[in-house]
Write a structure and sequence with these properties.
The chain is of the alpha/beta class. 35% of the residues lie in helices and 19% in strands. The chain contains ten helices and eleven strands. Strands 1, 2, 3, 4, 5, 6, 8, 10 and 11 form a nine-stranded mixed sheet that branches. A two-stranded antiparallel sheet has the order 7-9. Strand 1, helix 1 (23-34) and strand 2 form a beta-alpha-beta unit.
Length: 306
């Protein structure tokens, strides 16, 4: 692993929050995943109350930054970017991943393809099952499909689904609109061009949707690299009803950022329909309550006003 004075090919930013049960797994996997890539690892801790910081500080291969508060995912990434080598790629990782051998190497090599500014791996469960992490740009028709069909009918047309559910799509490298944000490498040039992640709107969830869109707006492509594999422990950071509500609300925040009010109102109604049709679940009822009462959005994690 690269020391502070050595040239760095890739700066790895891991966002920690009460990650003591999982963080050693991802840290132990980095060297084998890099395979000759000079890396620097930075763990940004969002005021954990467990032993996350102590575990990381016992290691000589990790620089620890204590945020002093919970900045959310985007805010912690931005703090990590401040200490990243400006000439290196940046790899953002969840703490509950384990990278398979050569995963970072494959992602880094994907950035050598002209026009590729970011790349994402194939994600598997701890048991080796595929996570359907590839996504399509949110739209009115896709919100309708998600509301009425959900995860059923995986072979339905792309214009009726926000998630790529065809498992064969996960076997071949290709450009993608965006992907779930557990792991993403960004070239040095793209990192400079796109700048900070949007922590004014997105405390958690939809920040990767927004960042990928800005990557494309800056003239770069996002590449899916199935040769790079990471295993993800589902729910490693927990999922409360408040976080489920934030996930729903941030779908609206993202869409609103790039669309005019009439389209946003229709999109919001379709997201409301999605949760209304599934209101038997307590988390969905909480999300539904928040979706229809915008003035309450500031009560969600992060405290971002509606």
């Amino acid at each position: 692993m690269a020391g502070a004075a050595e040239p760095t090919d890739c700066t790895i930013i891991i966002v920690g929050y009460n990650s003591a049960d999982s963080v050693e797994g991802v840290l132990d996997s980095l060297v084998g995943a890099a395979s000759g890539i000079a890396i620097k690892c930075v763990l940004v801790d969002n005021q954990s109350t467990d032993e996350t910081v102590e575990i990381a500080r016992r290691r000589s291969d990790v620089e620890v930054i204590e945020a002093g508060q919970n900045l959310g995912y985007s805010g912690a990434i931005n703090l990590g970017r401040r200490v990243a080598d400006p000439q290196s790629a940046v790899l953002v990782l969840n703490p509950d991943l384990v990278l398979e051998r050569d995963a970072i190497k494959h992602l880094y090599e994907a950035l050598k393809d002209p026009g590729v500014g970011a790349a994402v791996p194939k994600l598997l469960t701890a048991d080796g099952e595929l996570y359907p992490t590839l996504r399509l740009e949110p739209s009115i028709t896709r919100a309708l499909g998600e509301a009425l069909v959900g995860s059923r009918l995986p072979q339905r047309p792309d214009w009726l689904s926000e998630t790529v559910r065809d498992v064969s799509a996960y076997d071949v490298a290709h450009d993608a609109a965006w992907a779930a944000g557990a792991a993403m490498i960004i070239s040095a040039e793209c990192n400079r061009a796109v700048g900070d992640w949007d922590d004014t709107r997105f405390f958690l969830y939809s920040e990767e949707t927004d960042y990928a869109r800005r990557v494309r707006q800056a003239g770069y492509r996002l590449r899916y690299v199935p040769a790079a594999i990471a295993r993800h422990e589902e729910g490693g950071s927990g999922r409360s009803s408040a976080l489920a509500a934030l996930l729903a609300v941030n779908r609206i925040r993202f869409y609103e950022k790039y669309h005019r009010p009439p389209a946003t109102w229709l999109f919001r109604l379709l997201v409301i329909l999605h949760y209304a049709l599934r209101a038997h679940d307590v988390s969905n009822r909480r999300a539904l309550s928040m979706l229809v009462r915008r003035r309450k959005w500031s009560e969600l994690p992060g405290g971002i006003p509606g």
